[in-house]
Hints:
Elements: H1 13-45, H2 50-71
Helix pairs in contact: 1-2
Amino acid sequence: MGEDERPPRPGKPAESMWAYLNLGAQLAATVGVFVGLGLWLDRRYGCSPWALLVCGVLGVAAALYQFLRETLKGRDE
């Protein structure tokens, strides 16, 4: 392996730890906001548990989409 063929150096461990901690917090916050919205809609319109279920599924889908988008961001380059 020559000098031009070196693999890229990974970031500092602390930086990657904070990046993953941030992703986990974003995932939890996204699901939490959607579940909270579902609970509020259920109480407001009396459609329990349907708004909670729909918003919960949408929250998990949105969080998964956001998580995959962030983790795969560097692969396209």
